Amino acid sequence: MAKNSKTFSFEFFPPKTDSGLENLTSLAQKLETVPAEYFSVTFGAGGSTQQGTLDTCKSLFDSTKVPVAPHISGIGSNKESIALALQAYKEYGFKRLVVLRGDLPSGYGSKGDFPYAIHLIEFIQNKFDNYFDIEVGAYPETHPEAKSPEDDLKYFCDKFSAGAKGAVTQFFFDADVYFRFVENCAKLGVEQPITPGIMPIMSKDGLMRMARNCGAKVPSTLIDKLEKFDTEDDLKKFGVEYIASLTQTLLDNGAPGIHFYTINQLNPTNQIINLID
Ligand SMILES: Cc1cc2nc3c(=O)[nH]c(=O)nc-3n(C[C@H](O)[C@H](O)[C@H](O)COP(=O)(O)OP(=O)(O)OC[C@H]3O[C@@H](n4cnc5c(N)ncnc54)[C@H](O)[C@@H]3O)c2cc1C
Predict the structure, then answer these.
(1) Of 37, 72, 172, 203, whose CA is between 20 and 30 Å from 132?
(2) Are 273 and 8 contacting, i.e. CB atoms less than 8 angstroms apart?
(3) What are the tens digits of pLDDT across the range 92-121?
(4) 78: domain CATH number?
(5) What ligand 1 atom has the least distance to the C-alpha of 72?
(6) 22 found inside a domain
(7) For residue 1, is it within any domain?
(8) Does the C-beta of 102 come closer than 6 Å to ligand 1?
(9) Atom 52 of ligand 1 has which residue's CA nearest to it?
(10) Where do the DSSP E strands lie in the chain?
């Protein structure tokens, strides 16, 4: 159990099978004992895992006391289908949402009614009369499609003007990058919490693949270290210590909490939390 008074949130993706959902639910019950602020569940762009997101959120809601925040992404969707998904979230009692643009699956034609996250935020606020508490995505190392870091920062800050209450970052490995980003946002008037998103290290190839997909920089010193381990167990042990140290630095220097990308596994997230003061 973490001794830090700051809270943690945990992100899951919808399992593909009933037994996967049962396993995830019992995993969430174990994380419930940590001061978990909320559990969040990802949503496929174009609605590809819409039902899976709802089913997973319901299962977590029914089986734990932790608030559940479904994600919703707008790209490739129309207003009718998004309104239906939101209505279902509201009827089940979910109040917090993680609102994203999403990435169009390859071969998917139209951007639909919500080309950027801000359009979806504005739609949600209008249609549901500010009912939902909205978290948004943040990119301390700049979103890979951004025209410039300045543009990206401006568009990010606009999401707060549209009603977002907080943000969760893409994962990163350099605490200074996060603190610089928070400082730049503050200069543009952002006072809402920006929570670091933390990705545990499970394997070198997996880490490099995920980092490539979302534009996160992996320090060369970290890559060098990951190449040196003979066994998977040694690499995982190092990964836990490395990420625990990053997490500790973030918390000690003012991060409002930590959002863990759990990849639907109890460890290494739980092991990292156990190392934090
Ligand atoms: C915490 C977190 C959770 C996530 N969960 C999911 C999920 O569940 N499902 C999913 O599909 N994806 C998810 N993603 C991935 C996310 O959808 C993608 O990274 C996506 O590419 C960007 O989403 P965004 O909401 O930040 O987009 P936006 O804020 O819309 O920004 C996307 C890009 O467009 C630019 N931009 C923004 N507004 C404008 C504008 N008005 N005009 C011109 N350019 C603009 C920005 O600079 C940026 O380059 C998640 C990401 C994070 C950080």
Answers:
(1) 172
(2) yes
(3) 999 999 999 998 877 777 889 999 999 999
(4) 3.20.20.220
(5) 8
(6) yes
(7) no
(8) yes
(9) 137
(10) 7-12, 36-41, 68-73, 96-100, 133-138, 166-171, 194-198, 257-261
